[in-house]
Amino acid sequence: MDLTERARHFAVEAHQRIDHRRKYTSQPYSVHLANVARLVASVTDDPATLAAAWLHDVVEDTPATLYDVEKEFGQDVATLVAALTDVSKPSDGNRAVRKAIDRAHIAKAPPRAKTVKLADLTDNCLDICKNDVRFAKVYLDEMAALLEVLGEGDAGLYEQAQATYDKCARKIAKVRAPATDHSEFEPVFSFGGEDNSHLIRMFTEAFTARDIAEPLRSFDANTSCGAVSSVMDELSLNVAGVRERGAVTGYVRRDGLGDGSCVQSVRRFRDGQVIAGDATLTDVIHILTLHQTGFVTALGEVAGYFSREDINKPVVRMWLFGIVTIIEMELIQLVEDFFPDDSWHSLVSESRLAKAQAIQQERLRRNQHSSLLQCLQLSDKGQILLQEPRVLELLDLDSKRTAKKLVRELESLRNNLAHAQDVVTYDWPPIVRLAYRIEGTRSIKSSDPRARRRQKKT
Questions:
Q1: Hey, where are the domains in the chain?
Q2: Nearest-angstrom CA–CA distance, 357 and 344
Q3: How far apart are CA 70 and CA 293, in angstroms?
Q4: Which of 2, 19, 46, 60 is catalytic?
Q5: For residues 146 and 114, is the Cβ–Cβ distance under 8 A?
Q6: Span between the terminal Cα atoms of the chain, in Å
Q7: For labelling, which of 106, 228, 292, 406 has a CA lying 20 to 30 Å from the CA of 250?
Q8: Which of 232, 16, 39, 193 lies closest to 122, judged by CA?
């Protein structure tokens, strides 16, 4: 297969593996990828650009990293995909702040990447304006800002993107819809409720990048690759720093060392790949969605590193289990709010109800007070809530299908955490979603005292 076909196969399979679908139509995500690739192919036959068109969302949305893309398709394609991948972190601020950071990132991109971005904007604009008038107002503002920095992309695609924007803007202007601002499209569902806001702070601030980082061994730039490789083999290191003028300016991977001095095999830090030691675990997970390895600083110098393997460390497992517990507490509260006086009983099968009753009796025998609702399985609580139409909007979910999938993933993660299984291999996508959701909750609690009122059922 040629480069473009290999990229198509890789991207379609990566998105398919996590059952990634378009939000409004539930079509396989490959439909969007094909639309973007078709638009790019109409203006260029450059293999790397066409490959990047297929791969433009693979790092943001699937377990694949930029290193995976580089291994499979080379540095040229990886550079384009990196330019097309957002670099803002959940902790950077609200949607408007994050979009400004990502706009500055794409502004520095090479023209070929901007060409792909123009195709991506065009297809997304058509989809959003057709299916979500309220969000379209926000998206069009963001698209207009992006078009200001994409002038180096293909002129024909730029004109097409501008024409699509103009057409959708005219259409949306004719539709009467409530005024919106960016904050309305932040996650507004909070875990744990107001009484448990201290738990949110604890689980977002108490655990940091330095808690899981390993010390970064480093070598002078002129050290031979052979000497570096020997030490890395002896110490079982996959990553080592490279020092120039006394400071670590990049790193080498054991499987990427060539001949000559190690500076000839150095990999420079990408935007967002280095964070402070007191950065949250949410930031750690964000970096690991993009990169094989992240780095932390101490006193302004790169001093440690982390990888996805570190997510299996006890401190992260404790953090994740705490998040799952807080979510379950909130689900219990929602069931009690929507189905008072145990009116939820009729929504659970007799066998599942009997199982919960048996668990409750055993807990009572041990003098452990538990309500019957608390003894239900997580999937049962989710099933009950899905009988209330308002819950999907409250949880910012687009369909019952998505909600059921998230509950299954949450239950799988909790079980694997409880039984000391490898959560990175089996539960990486839900871990990323959980981390982003908990960070969004923290941002709302700290910045908007009215958020809880928006969350209450109407």
A1: 3-185, 209-307, 314-455
A2: 14
A3: 14
A4: 60
A5: no
A6: 55
A7: 106
A8: 39
Residue 290: both structure tokens together:
């993009």
The DSSP H or E segment spanning 276 is strand 274-276
pLDDT per residue as tens digits for the range 49-108:
999 999 999 999 999 999 999 999 999 999 999 999 999 988 888 889 999 999 999 999
For domain 209-307, give the CATH number: 3.10.580.10
Q: Which of 61, 120, 380, 439 is catalytic?
A: 61
Question: The tokens of 363 are what?
Answer: 């807990």
Task: Kindly give, in sequence order, each residue whose CB lies less than 8 Å from that of residue 138, ignoring residues fewer than 6 positions away.
Answer: 95, 180, 181, 182, 184, 185
- Could you tell me which CATH class the domain 3-185 is placed in? mainly alpha
The DSSP H or E segment spanning 304 is: strand 301-307
Decide if 3-185 and 209-307 have a common fold: no
CB 188 within 8 A of CB 444: yes
Q: What are phi and psi of 364, to 5 degrees?
A: -65, -35
**Which residue is associated with the tokens 């080498």?**
252
296, 281, 270: which is closest to 69 by C-alpha? 270
Q: What is the pLDDT of residues 207-265, one digit of tens each?
A: 899 999 999 999 999 999 999 999 999 999 999 999 999 999 999 999 999 999 999 99
- Six-digit token string for 351: 């066998």
Identify whether 233 is a catalytic site residue: no
